[in-house]
Amino acid sequence: MQIKINCEKPYSVFINELDTIELNSKVAIVTNDRVAPLHLEDFLKRLKVKEYGVIIVKDGEKYKNFETLNYILDECFKLKLDRKSYLIALGGGVIGDMTGFGASIYQRGIEFIQVPTTLLSMVDASVGGKTGINNKYGKNLIGSFWQPKVVYCQTDFLQTLPKREFSAGVAEIVKMAVTFDKDFFEWLEINSLYEEENLQYAIKKSIQIKADVVSKDEREAGIRAVLNYGHTFCHVIENETEYRRYLHGEAVSIGMNMANRLALKLGLLKNEELKRVEKLLKSYDLPISYKVNSSEKFYESFMLDKKSFNKKVKFILPDSIGGFSMRDDIEKSLVLSVLDEFND
Ligand code: NAD
Ligand code: GLY
Question: Which residue range is the domain that position 205 belongs to?
Answer without folding.
Answer: 172-340
